[in-house]
Specification:
Blueprint lengths: L4 E8 L3 H9 L1 H8 L1 E3 L8 E6 L6 H7 L6 E10 L3 E7 L7 E11 L2 E9 L6 H28 L1
Antiparallel strand pairs: 1-7, 2-3, 3-4, 4-5, 5-6, 6-7
Length: 154
């Protein structure tokens, strides 16, 4: 197992254009992810926001409620339409070290394979590294379900 990297993959039953919009449009991203952003995702720019409960899943929303209002800051690294969206963010709220999150889209038949990779955990302080990586791995697993639900019901 690579302790510096998380990779989660799912097959989404939605057209490429809808999946791309769900991950690259800050408003749509926030709806399923559970965040409210102050502006659009633009390559080379930072975007700030805050955690708000997702509107896609009541159980996940309840789990997010204690974190409502917690700040988020993303530095958008790459926007390659219909293919790849990359940002950096704090891998842990307890550290200023940024990790890199990459969304990659690959058309498969009538659907899209979505791969989410987060890397850079080796830069975190050693006492935070394993717990942050494990927590984020569980979080991205949950997010795969949220984006699928969003695409199914939006």
């Amino acid at each position: 197992m690579d302790n510096n990297r998380i990779e989660k993959v799912t097959l989404l039953n939605a057209p490429l254009e809808r999946v791309w919009a769900a991950i690259s449009d800050s408003a749509q991203f926030g709806t399923w992810f559970g965040a409210e952003f102050d502006g659009p995702f633009v390559e080379g720019r930072s975007t700030t926001g805050r955690i708000v409960p997702t509107s896609v899943d009541a159980e996940v929303a309840a789990a997010q409620e204690p974190h409502r209002g917690a700040p988020l800051a993303l530095q958008v690294v790459a926007v390659e339409p219909m293919t790849r969206f990359v940002f950096q963010w704090k891998g842990s709220l307890e550290s200023d070290v940024a990790t890199t999150v990459t969304f990659r889209l690959d058309p498969v038949g009538a659907g899209v394979r979505l791969s989410i990779t987060e890397s850079g955990f080796e830069g975190l302080p050693e006492q935070l590294r394993a717990a942050t990586r494990d927590g984020n791995a569980a979080g991205w697993e949950a997010q795969l379900g949220l984006v699928a639900s969003y695409l199914e019901h939006a």
